[in-house]
């Protein structure tokens, strides 16, 4: 088909919501989706969502950790719940990297920075690293390639320039959603649900032919 029997169908970017990355079983589904189509080049993950109705979203737990730190209280016990979620996924997927050390550093950084946006962003950050390890793809930290101005407004053209340059260096990469950084490098987040915006940002910078937004929630919903 064509000159050498190969058709390049273009570049696809996939964003996976928290319901699609809530546990190891869902990570396996994501990998199967990505590997089923060679046109997928970039993936934008959310933080792990609920596994069942009474479960807690990782992002909500991270905000709670920040509030404890802000009040001068210990957040380590609560962070343990977060760490256990990631450790369970890493063990089941047999990921071979120092996830425990990364979690310890994250717990300490939440106390050090005392920034609600930084705390909340760690859900996507950690999930992005794990997914990149699982897929065998490169990891691009959104803090380096998604930019906001000093007032917290999304700097679309600046971001597109930086993101496009970064993506050009990686054939396949995972870029966590939901956050970026101010000009001084401090983490800043979009509003909740902002990983969808991150996916569109990556798709634009990659000049993607298709942007696919995956979720495990049936239908089109504004609210539960």
Range of helix content: 40-55%
For the CA atoms, what is the radius of gyration? 18 Å
The string of secondary-structure elements, in order, is EHEHHHHEHHEEEHE
The strand count comes to 7
Query: What spatial form do the alpha-carbon principal axes imply?
Result: globular
* Average pLDDT number: 93
Strand order of the largest sheet: 3-4-2-1-7
* Parts with pLDDT < 50 across at least 5 consecutive residues: 1-8
Quote the distance from N terminus to C terminus: 47 Å
Number of helices: 8
* Helix-strand category: alpha/beta
Strand content: 5-15%
The biggest beta sheet reads: 5 strands, parallel
Describe this protein's structure.
The N and C termini lie far apart (47 Å). This protein has helices at residues 24-35, 58-70, 76-93, 99-113, 116-135, 142-145, 156-167, 195-205; strands at residues 12-16, 40-45, 138-139, 173-174, 179-181, 187-189, 210-214. It is built from eight helices and seven strands, in the order E-H-E-H-H-H-H-E-H-H-E-E-E-H-E. The chain is an alpha/beta fold and 224 residues long. The longest helix is centred in the middle third of the chain and has 20 residues, at 116-135. A hairpin with a 5-residue loop joins strand 5 (179-181) and strand 6. Helix 7 packs across helix 8 (195-205).
Explain briefly what this protein structure is.
Helices cover 47% and strands 12% of the residues. The chain contains 8 helices and 7 strands, in the order E-H-E-H-H-H-H-E-H-H-E-E-E-H-E.
């Amino acid at each position: 088909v064509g000159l050498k029997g190969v058709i390049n169908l273009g570049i696809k970017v996939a964003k996976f919501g928290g319901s699609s990355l809530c546990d190891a079983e869902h990570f396996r589904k994501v990998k199967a989706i990505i590997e089923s189509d060679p046109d997928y080049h970039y993936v934008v993950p959310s933080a792990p969502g609920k596994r069942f109705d009474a479960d807690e979203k990782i992002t909500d737990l991270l905000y709670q950790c920040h509030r404890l730190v802000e009040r001068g209280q210990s957040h380590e016990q609560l962070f343990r719940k977060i760490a256990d979620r990631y450790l369970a996924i890493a063990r089941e997927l047999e990921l071979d990297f120092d996830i425990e050390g990364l979690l310890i550093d994250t717990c300490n950084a939440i106390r050090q920075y005392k920034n609600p946006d930084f705390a909340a962003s760690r859900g996507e950050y950690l999930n992005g690293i794990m997914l990149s390890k699982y897929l065998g793809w490169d990891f691009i930290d959104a803090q380096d390639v998604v930019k906001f101005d000093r007032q917290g407004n999304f700097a679309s053209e600046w971001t597109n320039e930086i993101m496009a340059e970064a993506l050009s260096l990686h054939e396949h990469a995972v870029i966590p959603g939901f956050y970026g950084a101010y000009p001084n490098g401090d983490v800043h987040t979009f509003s909740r649900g902002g990983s969808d915006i991150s996916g569109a940002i990556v798709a634009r910078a990659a000049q993607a032919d298709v942007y696919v937004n995956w979720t495990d929630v049936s239908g089109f919903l504004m609210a539960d």
